[in-house]
Amino acid sequence: MEKLAILGGKPVREEKIYYGRQWIGDDDVEAVASVLKGDYITCGPSVEALEKKLCEVTGAKYAVAVCNGTAALHCACIAAGLKEGDEVITTPLTFAASANCAVYVGATPVFADVDPETYNIDPDSIEAHITEKTKAVVAVDFTGQAVDHDRIRAICDKHNLICIIDAAHAIGTKYNGKPEGSIGDMTCFSFHPVKTITSGEGGAITTNDPELYKKLHLASQHGIVRTPDEFVEKNPEGIWYYEMQTLGFNYRMTDFQAALLISQLKKLPEFSKRRHEIVKKYDEAFKDVPEIIVQKEIPQSDTTRHLYIIQLDLDKLSCTRREFFDAMSAENVQCQVHYVPVYWFPFYEERGYKRGLCPVAEKIYKGIMSIPLYPMLTDEDTDSVIEAVKKVVEWYRK
Ligand SMILES: *Cc1c(COP(=O)(O)O)cnc(C)c1O
User: Which of 224, 253, 360, 363 would you label with 325, given CA atoms 20 to 30 Å apart?
Assistant: First the structure.
């Protein structure tokens, strides 16, 4: 057996690889530079072009580009009309923003448990948590795999709930052939550098509902309307006139970020293809490793995977997750954990959320780590990731 690097052996590779990384090409740099040299660096034609492009890619009627995914979720909660006293059901196995967005508008996040095999929010658990106060669901396409849209839609219709999809992981994913972004009432995307396409910071909300679109637009742009036609009639001031109708935020995306995203969107099919290939290769490699449990895919989802998670079967290993993780780092394969159950954080704990609320999510959390997955990984890189996982498993095998 080969000695682990953490115990003084030779690491599987010399250069460290991380779990995620952007891919910015010369064409992306040129797209940004040309906007920077132009007339508008914010609120210009690139943002409009991006919104149009996002509609094409997602099949949604409307898109609003914003400055990050968290702002997208906040705007969705505002547009949904959520307020103090309302409850919003979400998953604990997500980035904190999926729950925080409810808190931003004074509403209360309620955590439903996840499916033990797909790790996505469990529709039965959503139903079990519905009360008279429930107004919305924030369902997360965890690791990029689409949630059970059919069942969640049916639950939302039955109980008159707004269905918000947190698709921060899932641009490029399709559910029953339909692109993510046109299925929920509102779908939120993030374009942070670890996500599938990036603008540094960036986000968007898509919807098919014209009323929600108007509200999303207001929420992200100070609540200010500038629609010359309407105003020319309504007031004698002229076309310069604008009006603040609601309390909104400045969540605008800049034009150079929009240009970067338009350029990145062109590569989405290629990025998606490469992610598919790597996922397939990892699935094959870990199929016969009984200590490693891989996430189950649902047949309805054609998934552009954002994260590849391995779950350690700790009963079969003589190490802790911590020891496994540190051993992987020493082999120069830097993993990450997605995610700490949101209600375990002090902010939520102080507000009365107790450990044990979602036992399935908590159990999954204890054994998981995300191994490197991004399109720029070479075949040699993925070989060394697999080699490192197998090496550490063999060392700690009971
Ligand atoms: C990244 C992420 C967000 C937040 O996006 P930002 O652009 O970083 O604000 C929200 N939800 C999930 C599930 C995410 O992974």
Answer: 360
